[in-house]
Design a protein that fits this description.
Length: about 260
């Protein structure tokens, strides 16, 4: 709520949290001032009461913003950089020609519903560019939504040991079911492994149980923060940041512009 000030009575309500009284002089407020003051106090009390009835006060939305970006904190993410950011493809397998002129790097969390939307709506549109050798695509971990984010990212890297990263990556996004509600429990993660043909389950299950790649997941997340990532999905197209699950057309515009350079 914005600060409001009554010009005549000097009543100021700041951030809907407190009411302070500021008189224009050291003289008494008098009857008109008292009326203004009383009205302001009543209005504030009514506001606070309704706010509390509506859901427990002034807690911010922790689930993500309306642009389709799951954020890391209670404050809005910083403005997008005005110049390209130097990011690398990380240590997971890259799809596409390594010499492609356009490099797309996505930082995401397997539990993030907006990342699931990105996987469904944006990723298929990249395929023609990938097939034509114009784009290479890399996925990087930004595991910040809880333990199941860490466990699922670790499990994907366990599948990667056997050359099955992208198959497992797709299974995770196709099986989202809320955050930290058991969808990505270790038992379920091992169950997904049974759906991948040719995966050595003994090796895979041992890797999942031991959290073998926990440090690698943490390092990838830290690298994302260093690049300015504050929510998921955050995608860099030749270093140009695109926040959230924007429509494919937003990515196509940038890609086509980059290909003409």
């Amino acid at each position: 709520m914005n600060d409001k000030q009554n010009e005549s009575g000097g009543v100021k309500i700041e951030e809907a949290r407190e009411v302070t009284i500021e008189s224009k002089s050291s003289q008494s407020l008098g009857v008109p001032g008292a009326i203004v003051l009383g009205s302001a106090l009543i209005a504030a009390a009514i506001y606070f009461g309704f706010a509390n009835l509506a859901g427990g006060g002034f807690l911010p939305n922790l689930g993500g913003d309306t642009t389709g970006n799951e954020t890391t904190g209670t404050t809005p993410p910083p403005a997008a950089p005005t110049s390209p950011v130097d990011v690398t493809v990380g240590d997971l397998p890259v799809i596409g020609d390594a010499s492609a002129p356009v490099v797309i790097v996505e930082w995401a969390d397997f539990q993030c519903p907006f990342c699931g939307r990105w996987h469904k709506d944006v990723r298929p549109g990249l395929q023609e560019y990938l097939d034509n050798g114009q784009v290479q695509f890399a996925y990087r971990d930004f595991a910040f939504l809880g333990q199941e984010s860490n466990d699922s990212a670790n499990a994907a890297r366990c599948a990667n040991e056997q050359g099955k990263f992208w198959q497992y990556h797709d299974l995770l996004f196709e099986n989202q079911n809320g955050e930290n509600r058991g969808a990505f429990s270790k038992e379920n993660l091992k169950g997904f492994g049974r759906q991948i043909t040719g995966l050595n389950l003994n090796q895979f299950n041992g890797c999942v149980d031991s959290d073998k790649y926990a440090d690698a997941v943490e390092a990838d997340t830290a690298a994302g923060r260093a690049a300015g990532v504050n929510g998921t999905p955050t995608t860099f197209v030749n270093g140009q940041v695109v926040n959230g699950a924007q429509p494919f057309s937003a990515f196509k515009t940038i890609i086509d512009a980059e290909l003409t350079k």
